[in-house]
Specification:
The protein has 239 residues and is α+β, with helices and mostly antiparallel strands. It is built from 8 helices and 11 strands. The protein has a 3-stranded antiparallel beta sheet. Strands 4-5 form a two-stranded antiparallel ribbon. It has a two-stranded antiparallel ribbon with strand order 6-9. The two termini are 25 Å apart.
Amino acid sequence: MSTFLPINLPSRCLVYEGVEADSVKARAYQGKDEVYLAQINPTNLERNYYEVLRDLIQGVDPLKLTLGDRMYIILWECVNSYTSTLNVSTVCSHCLASELVTVDLRNIEANELPEDFKQPYSVKLSTGKEIFLRLLTVDDEIKTEKYGKEKEDDFLYRYARSVVTDDDILQTLEKFREMPAKDVLRIVAFQEKFFHGPVMESKFTCSKCGEGDTVEVPFRFEFFFPDVSQLAESFGEGI
């Protein structure tokens, strides 16, 4: 029997029509999920992880999940399914000594969407024209991944998908190709402005000089499927 637990998504579920924040639940990975997890790589991440999400989340359509919420789920799953610790190599910014920092993923803080956030969100371009944008979703990433296997302008395609319009995506993409670069950046900036999800950094104290510092926690495919050495470091004699 699968046990589903409440999960507090950083979007506050403000972008999911008809979804209450306290109705969303998730379960830890099971053996059947590892069929997809073990095969994840940079070229199939979006589709493979969606296949897992379909059976992993209750209360919200996984295709509609924002990318910030999905990243939060990825870390939640790593903590609840495998291990909460991750070793990260860094250099102390004070004494420049090399340091191996053990990061506790449970202490990674998450930014939330502001309580008054609504989409579509209005952005004014340099021409004075107003366009309306929405946050990117899992569905957008799956379609961008597919598009990128055939075309080279997947960067523009991804952000074209964030425009709320009656035009089809190819019409919107053609407009993006002719758009001033500063307006493309305005659209990218909207996604950055409303970043929500885990802030991938952790504080530590340098073992050499005793000063406090911050280490960036890189995204790793081991979040999906830790290798044997990582699990051994986490579980020690228990493995």
